[in-house]
Specification:
Elements lengths: L3 E5 L4 H12 L3 E8 L6 H21 L3 E5 L1 H17 L6 H20 L4 E3 L4 E5 L6 E5 L16 H4 L2 E2 L7 H10 L21 H8 L7 E4 L5 E5 L22 E6 L4 E5 L5 E12 L9 E7 L7 E7 L5 E10 L6 E6 L2 E11 L1
Parallel strand pairs: 1-2, 1-4, 2-3, 4-7, 8-11
Antiparallel strand pairs: 5-6, 8-9, 10-11, 12-15, 12-17, 13-14, 13-16, 14-15, 16-17
Helix pairs in contact: 1-2, 1-6, 3-4
């Protein structure tokens, strides 16, 4: 009897080729297109309709069933509400990581069980392999270095890996497009999405103004010692490391080095002030080993997706928090973002940046 797998299908080329590969491997594939966010503009409605239409066309072409499931309530509660709360507190969240934790590798598992599926699958560029020494499954970077998506997947649990299939993890992006073209999928040249899925124009300040009750108050630009430099236009307009758009000429380059939501202050400083070595992370998850079993370990870590991994020592502080000390100072470490850890190609885990020391 064929093993049954539930595949998330966005209508993009990656999940479409994943569907084809799973069928070729002999799985009974059930496609699911997830409705996640409310569309507030005509452009957003069009993009959602296009996604569902493209997913349906691929499903028909490959002769697999497709279910369109409405997860908008759960997505708002877990992802959007958290996004708004974090910005209100002067932090910069990563909603994709939250979505993967609670929706794509959380709620999706629950739905798969209801459908009687043995596995869940996605079009992520990452690989699941077994470590012969420990017997545990590990998550490794995708073959396509430019498209590797392990940074967003560090919250996956060991027991989940036993049921996750990532069919395109061993392929380069160009190869995935070639496969799609070869088998006659119209989405072979469809553009990759770059923006946050529920903010189609990537203007998060506009989104927060229109979709939250955040009170945007003017406040003070200050130096680290408290010296007042001028007025800011509301903390949601600023991110750590920002130089442009401050609205004031200071006579020298000034950067956002901290945001104090309680005092409604934006702290400015020099570029040198942005470099820090030590931080604290919370909600820590590790994959190759249980975090509870270790006290200290070395990894290569990065403080944002595009950063280069740098050597660091991780010291456990509690069951789900740790202190991280980099050998080399990192620029613009940002509260609310994720620190993600690697051992070569292996994803060790990660956590939310909670404090900078």
């Amino acid at each position: 009897m064929k093993k049954k797998v539930m595949l998330g299908m966005s209508g993009g080329v990656d999940s479409s080729v994943a569907a084809y590969l799973l069928k070729e491997q002999g799985y009974d594939v059930i496609g699911v297109n997830m409705m996640l966010s409310n569309d507030n503009t005509e452009e957003e409605k069009r993009m959602t309709e296009d996604s569902i239409r493209d997913a349906r066309r691929v499903a028909e072409k490959l002769d697999i069933p497709l279910h369109v499931l409405d997860f908008r309530r759960e997505f708002k509660e877990k992802v959007i509400d958290d996004f708004i709360k974090e910005y209100a507190e002067g932090r910069t969240p990563n909603p994709c990581i939250v979505c993967n934790k609670f929706i794509k590798f959380g709620l999706f598992f629950d739905v798969a069980e209801k459908f009687g599926c043995d596995y869940v699958a996605t079009g992520h560029y990452a690989r699941v392999e077994r470590d012969e020494k420990t017997g545990r499954l590990v998550l490794k970077k995708g073959e396509s270095a430019k498209k590797d998506q392990t940074y967003n997947l560090y919250n996956i649990k060991q027991e989940q890996l036993e049921r996750i299939l990532l069919p395109i993890g061993n392929y380069e992006k160009d190869t995935v497009r070639e496969i799609a073209k070869k088998i006659g999928l119209d989405v072979h040249n469809k553009k990759d999405s770059q923006e946050i899925c529920f903010i189609k124009d990537n203007d998060y300040v506009r989104y927060l103004k229109e979709n939250s009750d955040i009170k945007i108050k003017t406040g003070e630009f200050v130096e680290a010692d408290g010296t007042v430099l001028g007025k800011h236009n509301g903390i949601i307009n600023y991110t750590i490391g920002q130089r442009k758009g401050l609205g004031i000429a200071f006579g020298k380059p000034m950067f956002v080095v901290d945001i104090n939501a309680k005092k409604n202050r934006v702290v400015l400083g020099s570029n040198d002030d942005l470099f820090k070595k030590e931080l604290v992370i919370k909600d820590v998850n590790t994959i190759p080993f249980d975090f509870a079993d270790v006290d200290e370990f070395k990894v290569y870590a990065k403080v944002r997706y595009a950063a280069k991994p740098s050597l660091a020592t991780v010291t456990k502080l509690s069951d789900n928090t740790a202190k991280v000390v980099f050998e080399e100072a990192q620029r613009a470490i940002t509260k609310g973002q994720s620190l993600v850890m690697y051992d070569g190609d292996i994803l060790v885990g990660g956590g939310i940046i909670d404090d900078i020391l």
